[in-house]
Fold Mitochondrial sodium/calcium exchanger protein.
Amino acid sequence: KNPAWGTPRSAPQCWEVRKHNSSEWCRFVRSNPDCRLEGGFLDYLEGVFCVFPPRLLPLAVTLYALWLLYLFIILSVTAEKFFCPNLSAISTNLKLSHNVFSLTFPLHGVTFLAFGNGAPDVFSAVVAFSNPRTAGLAIGAIFGAGVFVTTVVAGGIALVKPFTAASRPFLRDVIFYMVAVFLTFVVLYFGRITLGEALGYLGLYVFYVFTVVLCTWIHRRQRGEGLPPPGHWEPEMPTDAEEQESSGTNSGDYGEEYRPLLPSRETSLRILRAALSPLDYLKWRRKPWYWRLFKVLKVPVELVLLLTVPVVDPDKDDLNWKRPLNCLHVLTSPLLCILTLKSGAYGLYQIQGVFPVWGLVTLVGSILAIIIFITTSNEEPPKYHCVFAFLGFLASAMWINAAATELVNILRTLGVVFQLSNTVLGLTLLAWGNSIGDTFSDLTMARQGYPRMAFSACFGGIIFNILVGVGLGCLLQMTSSQLVVKLEPDSLLVWILAGALGLSLVFSFVSVTAQCFQLGKAYGVCLILYYLAFLCVALLTEFRVIRLSAS
């Protein structure tokens, strides 16, 4: 029914626990090697089958489902408010001069921006590929998110705001994405991925970045140096006006518009209290009830992240320098990294069997924090403030990795409880959860009058997810003695998923071109109906209503 990827078919599978008597569930889970979860802070399988009695299994599943939703919130908040801003600050600091801005702008979009937006997807894929038993989650999520974004999201944009698609970026992105899907199909057919093939995935993305930059440069040269008029240029990234318009709708929640015009000297304690407040009370009063409810859920996450992750903002005069909080980050960020790496295994290691690593990190961090606090002022950031962007990037990446690990483990647990394959969990729950942020942002962008930009994001962003997610995820699992990663499809569902994604790309390629890139509501309705049909076929295949030979 649900064999794991790359595990012997004769070995007892963890999903078979429900076939046994309820009194034997706990012993089966504890004694079966297939039930061991890799990484993570909590053993969800032992929790649901050993901690909760069998009659309370529905309660355990409900609690796990709520925790799953909250993990998606953690991923979203960390990526949006901490990972992406620090990544943007790093890219700003790495720019050589303003003379290369016209070339680095598209490069920034397809590298730093794509990495920021796709961080939850890529980290989830890397974590899932780390264990052959959960590799199906990665394939299901990458392909499932691809089908969802290129059908539901793209179709929703066409329904919200009919428009004319940018021809060259669309054709380029769809062709590259079809090549990436074909390569993955070949890898799945042979059941393995070698070192050369993993490097080929990353190399193809590098070639895609080079193609984007080259095409942009050629297009601008043809129309003259500098930024051409907005009416004639088909932008692949937002212009300054568009950035201001879009950022005005989803700006930070901390009331920047209410800051005083004239700066005043504030005490360190007052700065710390203001910096750790995730609520803007003026904004709170004018927002609807559902926004307040969601904000209440996010406040604990934001507070913990504010305590452990520094954020550098190049758009602010003070670069978001908060001396007392940033000095605290010198202690908390390294401590967070060492305690989340390998689920705390390195942080709890005893040096010479006497002194723990976390104690050493605390001691060194405290000394550095005191030195920085003494040698800096509240009003002006130090010259080395850009280092905090790298520290914030690393800390937020560790948060995302830890949340992604828990996410993969809890999805595998739900798969065991309901006897579902990892592939169907990946193409539904994991794909929907990772794509919900892109869905809202793209549809919002379309309603604001930028449907071409949103439509391009549907096809451009997921290229990064599939090429870097599969390539890097498999590359990190290779060792000097094992340069091959097995990727054996666990059911016919994998082939249906790959075929559905390829067919949706071909449909968009042919239909958009045939309509001379004029996209209306009919195109949107067709894409959404296509996704619903695909979802029905996938679920019918999972529940073995459709029984076709996989050979």
